[in-house]
Specification:
By secondary structure, the protein is α/β, with parallel strands linked by helices. It has helices spanning about 45-50, 70-75, 95-105, 110-120, 135-145, 165-180, 190-200, 215-220, 235-245, 265-275, 290-300, and strands at about 5-15, 15-30, 30-35, 60-65, 65, 80, 155, 185-190, 200-205, 210-215, 225-230, 250-255, 255-260, 280-285. The chain binds adenosine-5'-triphosphate.
Length: about 300
């Protein structure tokens, strides 16, 4: 997969304190990458560096093969971003706002305005004054303005802030459609449930670092799921499992073992124990949700 965004060892300090530290990430075409983390984790700082609003102190960021530090304009021509609250001319219509934005670009072809209006579902209200728009519609208008020049990379900082559930769903569908057409999306949030529905991949940020990076599905499934076994001889069982399987973690709670690790199979664990004369009374899975995983990895705090 072609790398649209490539971040290598990026750090940013404010007054000697790291807001982003040794951060590396590569995001490929058509991915919707969710940057999730509690308040103060460094999400906005990272996003501002990706969209060229802040300079990196060390490391490098490339967009579509262009390094922001050396080829700023080439890199930025592929980026569309909504970072601060978007400002519109409220007394003008949505259409007039779009027309004005199109004049800022040299390469917006005929018909493109119509196209972005359709992509953002604003057809029926596009000639109304923006002051009559709901927050969700203003957000969609901002998105339409942002994608006019066909950016390869769309970057949104907390785009669902203040939106109602219907607005969040609309935005999700629009972004997923854009990604299907090949646009790459990077979006930040501290709201886990929204991210797991929207994103194809989620990175968890804590204290300026990436502490987990996984497909949303994988995070929800095996990586943080544990197998629960109630056994007759817990001490022996731990020894057997640890000697037979690499990369597993076994927790013991009296006669219950909680076994974590990648690609574990409860049948396989059960067979191994029984063949080694350990009595197994119960086998089950202890599911951890994405939320549990998040809490474990970030130490909790600050999520909705
Ligand atoms: N301009 C600045 N000057 C000084 N410190 C800053 C500045 N911008 C951010 N910070 C600090 O850097 C750290 C990361 O902040 P950042 O806003 O990037 O986090 P965030 O994950 O986006 O949080 P939030 O969800 O609250 O926006 C925080 O400790 C913050 O106080």
């Amino acid at each position: 997969m072609e790398s649209i965004l490539s971040i290598e060892n990026v750090s940013k300090y404010f007054g000697g304190k790291a807001a982003v530290e040794q951060f590396s990430l590569s995001v490929g075409e058509g991915e919707i990458f969710g940057l999730l983390g509690p308040n103060g984790a460094g999400k906005t700082t990272l996003i501002k560096m990706i969209v060229g609003h802040l300079r990196v102190d060390s490391g490098s960021i490339m967009v579509c093969g262009h390094a922001i530090g050396q080829e700023f304009e080439a890199a930025m021509s592929s980026v569309g971003a909504i970072v601060e609250n978007p400002a519109h001319y409220l007394y003008m219509s949505g259409y007039e706002n779009l027309k004005l934005t199109s004049m800022l670009h040299t390469d917006v072809e005929r018909g493109r305005i119509r196209e972005v209006i359709e992509q953002t579902g604003l057809q029926s209200r596009i000639h109304d004054k923006v002051k009559r728009y709901s927050l969700g519609m203003r957000q969609r208008l901002a998105l339409a303005q942002t994608i006019l020049h066909r950016p390869k990379l769309l970057v949104l900082d907390e785009p669902t802030n203040g939106l109602d559930p219907a607005g969040i769903k609309d935005l999700r569908e629009i972004l997923q459609n854009l990604a299907r057409e090949g646009m790459t999306v990077v979006v930040s949030s501290h709201i886990l449930s929204e991210m797991s529905l929207l994103c194809t991949r989620i990175g968890i940020m804590r204290s300026g670092r990436l502490v987990a990076d996984s497909s949303a599905q994988a995070l929800q499934r095996s990586q943080y799921g544990k197998i629960r076994l109630r056994v007759g001889q817990p001490g022996e069982a731990v020894q057997i499992l640890e000697s037979q399987f690499t990369d597993i973690a076994v927790e013991v709670q009296e006669d219950v073992l909680l076994v974590g690790g990648d690609a574990l199979d409860s049948g396989q664990l059960n067979r191994m124990l029984v063949l080694n004369d350990v009595d197994v009374y119960e086998v089950g899975e202890q599911k951890e949700t994405l939320e549990d995983a998040f809490m474990e990895l970030t130490g909790g705090g600050g999520i909705a």
